[in-house]
Amino acid sequence: MSEKSVLPSRLLFYIITTSMFLLTLSSLFLLEFSNTSIISSKVLKLILINNTSVHLKPSSKNEQAEVFSLSSVTSQTEHEVPLEGQEEGPSLRDDEGNFISQKKQRKMACNPDQALLKVFMYDLPSDFHFGLLGWKGNPSETWPDVKNPAQIPPYPGGLNLQHSIEYWLTLDLLSSEIPDINRPCTAIRVNNSSLSDVIFVPFFSSLSYNRHSKRHGKDKISVNRMLQSKLVQYVTGQDEWKQMGGKDHIIVAHHPNSMLDARKKLGSAMFVLADFGRYPAEIANLEKDIIAPYKHVVRTIRGDASAPFSKRPTLAYFQGAVYRKDGGVIRQELYYLLKDEKGVHFAFGSVQGNGIHKAGQGMASSKFCLNIAGDTPSSNRLFDAIVNHCVPVIISDEIELPFEDVLDYSEFCLFVRASDAVKKGYLLNLLRGIKEDKWTKMWKRLKEVAQHFEFQYPSQPGDAVDMIWQAISRKISSGQIKLHRENRYRRSQLFKGN
Fold first, then answer.
1. What are phi and psi of 474, to 5 degrees?
2. What distance in Å separates the CA atoms of residue 427 and residue 420, rounded to the nearest whole number?
3. Is the pTM of the predicted complex or chain greater than 0.90?
4. 167 closest CA partner among 196, 203, 215
């Protein structure tokens, strides 16, 4: 071989060697800073291991900068439910780069290790829950089959429905054990109480009060009182209750008269309530308990079908019981102040004679809906107004609102002190002074938040059921902070004398 032919060969060898060295060096650099690289760390590792070039398969869709794993991303994309209008989390892919559908993501993510809240639910006899709805299963069955919604016992309609919170929460926990049901992964039922964050007591207390609070025939006590007595005996006898004195138990008592006999004996539990109107502060308070919305009874107006300012002829709307006791006396005062005013609909009303449908129509054609304190500080009228995108005017000084730690109600509600509302001309001057642009801003916000007050089965991200579970999770976290603070010096006392 001639001298001339050897030189190009050597030069080519040096070029190849130098190129491979530079490629390896650059790969190490990119791997070190792969969180800002456009090449995934998996590809970079292949380059280093094989020390050869990698052919990236082109895709018609934009590739993500990183290949997400379910274990690291699910908690961000599934558990932090975005409010309407916010973007969803990143789409996930499997190890082969294929997109994973949202439904499949939920199936893969719905397990106790990744759920926001792990819930142990007592298997109470059906007399305490679905048996109150007429359900009768086989002797070996505690719960109805929730795979088929058509087989789930329906909850009674009318005003019974407004306090049906425990029904929806129980259904949601039962459905969490069925992979084929598409639902959020916020709360998951676990069968071992030692693995749970909270203990759920599935007693349909509001239904028990509404349907069984009266004695019949020669009965010495009502079915409602009998069930409460048995519930106290059962729950307080469980090891789960004894471990923490019931502080990690959840009991739904949404109707203000439900659990009247048992609430004091089970007062250490976390209650899910409509308000605190009929509870002493030592039994129910914001420090330990949850305020849940009523189940609205009027139909929901779709956002695109909601009438704007110019197509809502009524300025202020109220229809319902006028003569109430306690703090509800203000209704009577406002009735005589407003009933004959132009643009105001203030009338007696009930569920009879298609009353619910008429109330829904009235709210949907009104700019403002009056939510006035009654026998208790709250009522389902507020939530009927929200789903009809009628700006609520809240005249109830003692009211507590659901999810207020994450929702700013002043963005879509007006608050008027009772002492101001009864001043002649005050309320109407306030409402008439609100211009269309300000009202429209609140109306748009109502359409965004309405989803948070919807009870449905299966539950959906950001609906009322999902929001309640999230609220419980936040309450547990704040309780743990308090417990840990109390333990600061308690543990160190154990070392005294050692």
1. -65, -40
2. 8
3. no
4. 203
Taking the C-alpha atoms of residue 394 and residue 414, their distance in angstroms, rounded to an integer, is: 6
Structure-block tokens of residue 24: 């390896």
Amino acid, single-letter form, for residue 377: P
Residue type present at position 384 = D
**Per-residue tokens: 451:** 């989803």
* 126 in Cβ contact with 137 (< 8 Å): yes
Cα angle 26, 29, 30; round to 5:
90
Question: In the numeric block, which tokens belong to residue 1?
Answer: 């071989």
Residues in a beta bridge with 120? 190, 199
According to the model, what pLDDT value does residue 26 have?
A: 60
Distance CA 271, CA 169 (A): 13
Give the C-alpha separation, 457 to 465, whole Å.
Answer: 9
| Residue 28, phi then psi, degrees to nearest 5 | -60, -40
Burial class (CB in 10 A: 0-12, 13-18, 19+), 85: exposed
Rounded CA separation 380/371 (Å): 9
- Element (H or E) spanning 394, and its range? strand 391-395
Residue 484: which pLDDT band, with cuts at 50, 70 and 90?
A: low
Assess contact for 291 and 275: CB atoms under 8 A. yes
Comparing C-alpha atoms, which of 88, 92, 118, 126 is closest to residue 107?
92
At 253-311, the pLDDT tens digits run 999 999 999 999 999 999 999 999 999 999 999 999 999 999 999 999 999 999 999 99
CA trace torsion 252, 452, 330, 162 (10° rounding): -50
Q: Are strands 366-372 and 391-395 parallel, antiparallel or unpaired?
A: parallel
Please give the structure tokens belonging to residue 193: 């109480």
At what angle are helices 41-50 and 3-32 packed, to 10 degrees? 140
Of the candidate ranges 117-121, 133-137, 175-179, 479-483, the one whose mean pLDDT is the lowest: 479-483
Tokens of 413: 């509600």
Residue 42's closest CA among 95, 93, 105, 99? 95
Q: How far does Cα 116 stand from its chain's mean position? A: 12
**Do 185 and 115 touch, CB atoms closer than 8 A?**
yes
Strand partners, 117: 187
Assigned token pair, 157: 């309609």
Half-sphere exposure of 364 (CA within 13 A, CB side): 18
Contact yes or no for 63/37 (Cβ under 8 A)? no
Consecutive H or E run containing 20: helix 3-32
Pairing of the two strands 270-273 and 290-291:
parallel
What does the alpha-carbon distance between residue 225 and residue 288 come to, in Å, rounded to a whole number? 25
* Size (the chain), residues: 498
